[in-house]
């Protein structure tokens, strides 16, 4: 019989880690990434870890209050992620478990699963019923809203490490500029390299109906979030009008949003973000829905844990790779010949470099 493991405390540390390449989107320029590092300490001496990408330093700092509050609420509880997920949902029911609150709850769920995998002395992917396998990754470290020539140069650089796919951002001041950038990048890349593009919700419905079909012969693997992420009715019309597959899902909050997107046939592919889907527990529910609808699933950011999650997803497709957390990790995720390699470590593989965490800690 498995020993009961209980929570002693939950703590978090806010850090701001500089990026190797600035990421320029229509909405924001990221020259550093604000993260909260979450640790669950158990009464049995096991530490579970997770981190969340907070988009702004203010969100990272304010999330500390919620972590402290949940530490008091969950202290003494068994490390049983399904039960903990229910407790957190009920606790935040009146104000709705969404936004930064959901990020915190999701990170706690991920750290709880890490505790269980470490206690079983298994990599998380194996605990979830998959093999300890590697999966195809696309490089998403850059290719923001820069000039066409600069984008072509950067796309070539992003192939280092044997990547077989890269992603670029769209949403320049004119469609002509976006098209020129896509053509410059596509011309520079070998034919067997997949090119994804991401509008980050920059288009109106009318623009999307015009622009997305115009990319049909440009060698693009998918067009991501051309319009508002939760406008499933119009996204479905864009998907039907475009031969190039439409991708969405990173902004879906919980499985109900995934269900609604699937019922509306809003996209050809799906992408889950572990911070918004509800951590490992929420991911497993969403992966079941995607499998029922035969929709291929890719990951959004947070590649270290996402590598385990995509390995255990029946309709797995791509892992989105970013190196943002590398400076604070003892063992960053390795990419070999374009494949993400899950380390032979118990748990999800996250181990903090304590000196680096202190260096990048927010005041």
Verbal overview:
The chain has 13 helices and 13 strands. It is an alpha/beta fold and 363 residues long. It has two domains: 123 residues, Enolase-like, N-terminal domain (Enolase-like, domain 1), CATH 3.30.390.10; 216 residues, Enolase-like C-terminal domain (TIM Barrel), CATH 3.20.20.120. It has a six-stranded parallel beta sheet with strand order 5-6-7-8-9-10. A four-stranded mixed beta sheet has the order 11-4-13-12, covered by helices on one side. The protein is globular and about 60 Å long.
Report the CATH C-level class of the largest domain.
Alpha Beta
Number of domains: 2
Number of strands: 13
Biggest β-sheet: count, sense, barrel? Answer: 6 strands, parallel
Q: Care to give the gist of this entry?
A:
The protein is α/β, with parallel strands linked by helices.
Label this structure with key terms.
363 residues; alpha/beta; Enolase-like, domain 1; TIM Barrel; 2 domains; six-stranded parallel β-sheet; 13 strands; 39% helix; globular
Q: How is the topology of this model organized?
A:
Blueprint: E1 7-24, E2 29-42, E3 47-53, H1 57-74, H2 81-91, H3 99-119, H4 124-127, E4 135-139, H5 148-157, E5 165-169, H6 175-188, E6 194-198, H7 205-214, E7 222-224, H8 232-241, E8 246-248, H9 254-264, E9 269-272, H10 274-277, H11 279-292, E10 297-299, H12 303-311, E11 319-321, E12 334-336, E13 339-341, H13 354-360
Parallel strand pairs: 4-11, 5-6, 6-7, 7-8, 8-9, 9-10
Antiparallel strand pairs: 1-2, 2-3, 4-13, 12-13
């Amino acid at each position: 019989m498995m020993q009961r493991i209980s929570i002693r405390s939950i703590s978090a540390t806010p850090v701001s880690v500089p990026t190797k390449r600035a990421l320029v989107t229509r909405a924001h320029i990221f020259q550093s990434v604000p993260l909260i590092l979450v640790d669950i300490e158990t009464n049995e001496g096991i530490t579970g870890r997770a981190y969340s990408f907070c988009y702004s330093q203010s969100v990272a700092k304010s999330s500390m209050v919620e972590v402290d509050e949940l530490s008091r609420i969950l202290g003494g509880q068994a490390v049983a992620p399904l039960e903990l997920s229910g407790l957190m949902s009920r606790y935040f029911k009146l104000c709705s478990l969404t936004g930064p609150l959901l990020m915190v709850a999701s990170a706690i769920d991920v750290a709880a699963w890490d505790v269980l995998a470490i206690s079983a002395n298994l990599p998380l992917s194996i605990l979830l019923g998959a093999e300890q396998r590697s999966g195809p990754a696309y490089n998403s470290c850059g290719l923001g809203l820069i000039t066409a020539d600069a984008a072509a140069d950067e796309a070539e650089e992003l192939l280092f490490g044997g990547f077989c796919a890269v992603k670029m951002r769209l949403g320049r001041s004119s469609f002509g500029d976006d098209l020129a950038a896509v053509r410059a990048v596509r011309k520079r890349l070998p034919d067997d390299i997949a090119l994804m593009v991401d509008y980050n919700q920059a288009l109106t419905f009318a623009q999307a109906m015009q622009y997305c079909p115009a990319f049909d012969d440009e060698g693009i693997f998918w067009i991501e979030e051309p319009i508002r992420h939760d406008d499933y009715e119009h996204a479905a019309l864009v998907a039907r009008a475009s031969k190039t597959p439409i991708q969405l899902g990173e902004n879906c909050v919980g499985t109900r949003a995934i269900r609604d997107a699937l019922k509306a046939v809003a996209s050809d592919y799906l992408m889950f973000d572990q911070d918004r889907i509800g951590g490992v527990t929420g991911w497993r529910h969403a992966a079941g829905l995607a499998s029922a609808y035969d929709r291929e699933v890719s990951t959004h950011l947070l590649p270290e844990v996402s590598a385990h999650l995509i390995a255990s997803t029946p309709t797995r497709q791509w892992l989105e790779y970013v190196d943002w957390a590398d400076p604070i990790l003892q063992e960053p995720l390795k990419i070999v010949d374009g494949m993400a390699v899950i380390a032979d470590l118990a748990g999800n593989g996250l181990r903090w470099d304590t000196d680096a965490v202190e260096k990048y800690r927010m005041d």
